Amino acid sequence: MNLLQQRINKEKAKATLDNNNYDALNLSPEISALLKAKDAIISLQQKQLDALEDEPFNFQQMLLLPGEISTYKSRNDVDLHVSFSFAHSEKQASFIPVVASNMDTIGTLAMADVLRQKEMFTCLHKFHETKKLTQYFSSLKANDPKAFEYFAISTGISDQDYRRTEYIMEKNPELQYICVDVANGYMEALDKFVKKVRKRFPETTIFVGNVVDAKRTKDLIEIGADAVKVGIGPGSVCTTRQEAGVGALQGSAIVDCAYGVHELGYGHIISDGGCTNAGNISQACACGADMIMLGGLLSGHKECFEGEPKIKIDSYGKEWVEFYGMSSYKAMQNHYKDCEKRMEYRGSEGRAILVEYKGPVINTVNALLGGMRSAITYTGVSGLRDLRKAEYQILHDGNNGLNLSLATKSPLFEMNVHQCTR
Ligand code: 5GP
Questions:
Q1: What is the reported pLDDT for 402?
Q2: Residue 104 in this model has a pLDDT that exceeds 60
Q3: pLDDT (tens digit per residue) in 309-347
Q4: Does the annotation mark 238 as catalytic?
Q5: Is residue 235 in contact with ligand 1, taking CB distance under 6 Å?
Q6: Which of 123, 179, 238, 287 is an active site residue?
Q7: How far is it, in rounded angstroms, from Cα 295 to Cα 333?
Q8: In the Cβ-directed half-sphere of 391, how many Cα atoms lie within 13 Å?
Q9: Nearest residue CA, atom 10 of ligand 1?
């Protein structure tokens, strides 16, 4: 066991002894137990933060440790639902907190249809035509009103984005979630937008991102976010780390932001980016994520495309389809008439790659959920939210934080980069 791990384990053991003495306050046993549990989590996270201050890490460097004896007889018995109580909207929810990203090939209507069957969540991308969205929502209203519990509409922070969001929300009062998404969550303009949307839609649950530190997480929650998205640079088709030299390793970023949330006493965090296998989802939970947003892991499926996927077949007969970042030249070309002008001042912080075509997403989803159940039984915790109590070790020989694992899977990658990026 390495020194760092020894420190974490020691601190974890100590944390359970650090509870305040609430007994003197004459509280009911339930309240007292709740306060003690909360203290234990905060204290534990503080200790972990102290221990990890000089050792930032990402999922590739983490391993969850088997520990407690599991009481589950079979993985099949593990329920992956998590209950949420959203502080601003005052709404309660329960779903499997794996969230399809609002990328235009991931947050599709077809993806939402499949994930909803599994009670998982989708952030619909913001490039759907409003007419098409409204038609889709009308069909859901007639067939499956519960459907609105499993998706958010997404928006940027321009005036045009606001008008579009307001229009869609007014036409479809059943909508329960809005995801406010900007690559850089450290902007005054984001605060203004969040305050405006919160004021206009007080009962709507709002996700806001992306950030990577406790203070900014707390700020966004205080001004109106029910959940904050965490992640700058970890995405499979993100090149921010190369283009701007900016980012934070995802594991430590989640630990930090989760600590902020618990310090505040309300709010949730969504880990966004960096999951390249099912195990990373459980690792994100162990770091303290309440929900986990996926892009690359859901890419390359039938549901990613409107109509038939454009499949490319390589010389071995393998099938590949395109997947690209939302800041890539490819995405700009698809969605913005003034693409060339935009590229003059902002550059491309995303790449376009080919990923293996995998057919219907349901098989992948089942595999991901299977992996999560497995993590729960190995670590002996009771459920996904409890994974944050699981112990883990940090490996020192992980990669350098540039997440190329999806891209490098493709033998056509080099050629493809050349073809698909500017
Ligand atoms: P993945 O699950 O593929 O690792 O990460 C998905 C996340 O990457 C998205 O939810 C989004 O936050 C981020 N992302 C998507 N496209 C781009 C891009 O072009 N540039 C950057 N910097 N991030 C992106």
A1: 45
A2: yes
A3: 999 999 999 999 999 999 998 998 888 877 777 777 777
A4: yes
A5: yes
A6: 238
A7: 20
A8: 16
A9: 101
Burial letters for 380-389: b for 16+ Cβ neighbours within 10 Å, e otherwise? bbeebbbbbb
Report helix, strand or coil for 100.
strand
Task: Quote the DSSP letter at residue 70.
Answer: P
CA 165 to chain centre: 21
Contact (Cβ atoms closer than 8 angstroms) between residue 290 and residue 97: yes
Cβ proximity of 76 and 269 under 8 Å:
no
Mean pLDDT of the chain: 88
Ligand 1 centroid from CA 209, angstroms? 12
Closest C-alpha among 117, 87, 90, 102 to residue 165: 102
Q: For 75-414, give the CATH class.
A: alpha beta
At which residue do the structure tokens 């070309």 appear? 333
Q: Is the CB of 326 under 6 A from ligand 1?
A: yes
Cα 158 from Cα 223, distance rounded (Å): 18
Domain assignments of the chain as residue spans, ordered by start? 3-52, 75-414
Q: Which of 101, 323, 330 to mutate to test the pocket of ligand 1 (most atoms within 8 A of CB)?
A: 101
The closest of 234, 123, 224 to 181, measured between CA atoms, is 123
Q: Quick check: 358 and 85 in contact, CB under 8 A?
A: no
Given a contact cutoff of 8 angstroms between Cβ atoms, the answer to whether 288 and 94 are in contact is no
User: What is the SS3 assignment for 64?
Assistant: strand
Query: Which strand ranges, in their side-by-side order, compose the sheet holding 352-356?
Result: 312-313, 319-324, 352-356
Cα angle value 121/127/129 (rounded, 5°): 105
209 lines ligand 1 (CB under 6 A): no
Supply angle C-alpha 296, 101, 421, rounded to 5: 55
Residue closest via CA to ligand 1's atom 23 equals 238
* 254-299: pLDDT as tens digits: 999 999 999 999 999 999 999 999 999 999 999 999 999 999 999 9
Block residue for tokens 């391993």: 63
CA 229 to chain centre: 6
